[in-house]
């Protein structure tokens, strides 16, 4: 209360309106901004998941295509027949591989542009190489564990990626599709086929869908969250948590979802799509500022509209507060004038309306009318009281003075002071003849008052000759002024 105790009502109303407008503007801006942000975010998520669904379908087609290649190789008649009939020690190079086996390879593998090359390993661990892969660089891939696992599963097995060396000396990142070869006639295990697929064939799927310039795609496996495919080749074989600081693979569930993450102080929209077939997770990361690129413009528009509305609101608030406080100001001004003595001050009739302030103004006028009437009555009563007291004093003065003067005259006669008695009688006659008491007036001029006073003092001088001496000095300039006639006190 102390904070606003010295502020006028108009200022209080204005401050209150400003606070309300600012709070309303802030709330409206925040809600609008948040709603637009959510709308933009939902659109970005929906668009991203649409892209990722397309990537998922294209990836599924590629996977099925390569698995079909591996299956065709494993059941190719030329390959099965040769592997059942020949000593594999003879197969040291493509040049000495039987024609039927080479024809099957060329018909199946080379007809598909996605397949880079293939290798066959017999049940006796003899390796046959087809295509451009350098033999020694892929031997370490053909581990007994991989071969055993491929025998235990019906569908082709995907492993990798790996870095392999090509016959021209360059290197390539490849995935390997592994499929066991089982005899169509006896069901015996004949060997294992390894089909090599370039990682770039997989990354090209989402590179074609990459719209945002700063967006990134990663495919991670379920084995420690290793990046097995990326739009940035340098990130391959690294842990996703090392590339995206603060994000652990365990944080990314096996479900389609999105979330906002902070990476290096920058907010990103992270969308995850679970590729169930190979237990992969496709992750799309987009800078949040690209998702909400238009939100600044919307914020500026909202602020502009809000400021315009605020100005209109302030003008209306000023008008409303003025309509409320103007009558109060007039009332306060009138009360101040009354306090300074202007009891005739009233609120003008045109300023009195049916509002609460109007009723208060009407009541003020009525109160002042009653007060002025009461003051007039009091003044009249006081005037009457003064007149009564004056008359009472006069009635007390006249007989008392007269009696004392007559006593003085009688005493002078008894003492045979005839001259003194004559002078006192003459002064008494002049007193009543020249004063207003003989004419019944309550006021006389100063000149008459001086004459009356001299007669009075002369009479008193005869009475108190031993004790009294007097001198009358009057400024001639005041002789024409008037004064009340109270000529003698009760102790005369």
Could you write a compact summary of the structure shown?
This protein is α+β, with helices and mostly antiparallel strands. Helices cover 52% and strands 17% of the residues. A hairpin with a 6-residue loop joins strand 6 and strand 7 (227-230).
What does this structure look like?
With 492 residues, the chain is of the alpha+beta class. It has three domains: 1-209 and 294-342, 2-Layer Sandwich (Beta-Lactamase), CATH 3.30.450; 215-287, PAS domain (Beta-Lactamase), CATH 3.30.450.20; 376-484, no CATH class. Helices cover 52% and strands 17% of the residues. The chain is built from twelve helices and twelve strands. The strands form three sheets. Strands 2-1-5-4-3 form a five-stranded antiparallel beta sheet. The protein has a five-stranded antiparallel beta sheet with strand order 7-6-10-9-8. β6 and β7 form a beta hairpin. α2 runs antiparallel to α3, α9 (295-339) packs parallel to α10 (356-414) and α10 packs antiparallel against α11. The radius of gyration is 62 Å and the shape is rod-shaped. The relative contact order is 0.07.
Write the element-wise H/E pattern from the N-terminal end onward: HHHEEHHEEEHEEHEEEHHHHEHE
| Total number of strands | 12
Q: Give the strand content.
A: 15-25%
CATH superfamily of the largest domain: LuxQ periplasmic domain, N-terminal subdomain
Write the SSE topology.
Layout: H1 9-75, H2 77-85, H3 99-108, E1 115-122, E2 127-131, H4 135-138, H5 144-152, E3 157-165, E4 171-182, E5 189-198, H6 199-207, E6 216-220, E7 227-230, H7 240-243, E8 257-263, E9 266-275, E10 280-287, H8 288-291, H9 295-339, H10 356-414, H11 418-434, E11 443-445, H12 446-463, E12 482-484
Antiparallel strand pairs: 1-2, 1-5, 3-4, 4-5, 6-7, 6-10, 8-9, 9-10, 11-12
Helix pairs in contact: 1-9, 2-3, 9-10, 10-11, 11-12
